[in-house]
Write a structure and sequence with these properties.
With 90 residues, the chain is mainly β. The protein has one domain. Helices cover 7% and strands 51% of the residues. The protein has a five-stranded mixed beta sheet with strand order 4-3-7-6-5. It has a two-stranded antiparallel ribbon with strand order 1-2. Strand 3 and strand 4 form a beta hairpin. The chain is globular and about 35 Å long.
Length: 90
């Protein structure tokens, strides 16, 4: 298990992500609602990249990663994101 900041991240081998997993991107709206904005399969390399980034782009919009959750029942990862509202997206 690896610690980044104040969060612990299990190694890929610890949770069986060698081949990849489905990732659900969920946007936290300013009013508190949560909206699914994307769902796709991520390779092990894409998952490993999460250790090095705080922001991601999808659909031409930039988002800050807030939290991640491993959903054991669905065998997927859920990432909670907040839209970056300053400046232009990358």
């Amino acid at each position: 298990m690896r610690m980044i900041g104040m969060r612990f991240f299990p190694e890929e081998e610890e949770i069986g992500l060698e081949k990849g997993i489905t990732v659900h991107l969920l946007e936290k709206q300013p009013g508190g609602d949560i909206v699914k904005i994307d769902e796709r399969y991520w390779s092990a390399d894409m998952l490993a990249a999460l250790h090095h980034v705080n922001y991601l782009t999808v659909g031409g919009k930039e988002y800050e990663t807030l939290e991640g959750r491993l959903n054991v029942d669905a065998q997927s990862i859920e990432l909670l994101l907040a839209a970056v509202r300053h400046g232009q997206s990358i």
